[in-house]
Amino acid sequence: MRHLRKVLATTVALGAVVVGASACTPDTTRGRVENDVPATFAHAYALSEQLQGHRPVTPDVTSTECHSSVNTKQDSQPGSWGCDLSYTVDGKKKDVSLLVLIDQLGCYQASNTDNRNAMITDASTGAQLPDPKVGFDGCFDVYDNRTNTSNR
C-alpha cells in the first residue's frame, strides 16, 4: 500500500509538471511567424549595413509568406518553416527565401540557405564576420494576439 501511494504521488506530480509546462508553451502560428521574422530580418539587414560602414538602411518588407513543413494543414507548431520575403532597398526590389527553425519556446533561427556562408568585413575592426542578414535569430512576442492559424 505504501509503495502504491509513492507511485501515485509521483504520477500526480509528473502530471502536474507536464500540464504546467504545456500551459506555458507559446503558440507557433503562421500569424506570429509572418509578423516576427520580417521585422527581425529588417533589423539584421540594417545591422549588416552598419557593420560594413554603410548607412544602416532598413529594408521595407513588402510581402511575407511562411508555411510550416511540420503541420501543413494548419500552418502551426514548432519545427521547420519556409519563409519567402519580398522587400525593397533604395527603390530596388529583392527577394529572399529563409529556412526558419522554431523551438517550443517561440524562439527561432533563420538562415538564407543560398548564402548561409556569406561573410562581411567589419569596417571598424577589419574582422571577417558572418553576415547578420543571412543568419539571425529571434523570439516571438508570446503575449500578442496572433494565435490564429490559416492556410491563405
Structure commentary:
It is a single chain. With 152 residues, this protein is α+β, with helices and mostly antiparallel strands. The chain has one domain. The chain is built from 2 helices and 7 strands. The protein has helices spanning 2-23, 30-51; strands at 60-68, 79-89, 92-102, 107-111, 119-121, 128-130, 135-139. A 5-stranded antiparallel β-sheet has the order 1-2-3-4-7, with helices on one face. Strand 5 and strand 6 (128-130) form a beta hairpin. The longest helix is centred in the N-terminal third of the chain and has 22 residues, at 2-23. The termini are far apart.
- Individual helix count: 2
Which consecutive residue ranges, at least 5 long each, have pLDDT under 50? 15-22
Level of helix content?
25-40%
Structural class: alpha+beta
Query: What is the total number of structural domains?
Result: 1
* Order of H and E elements: HHEEEEEEE
The proportion of residues in beta strands is 25-35%
Quaternary status of these chains?
single chain
List the defining traits of the structure above.
two-stranded antiparallel ribbon, 152 residues, alpha+beta, five-stranded antiparallel sheet
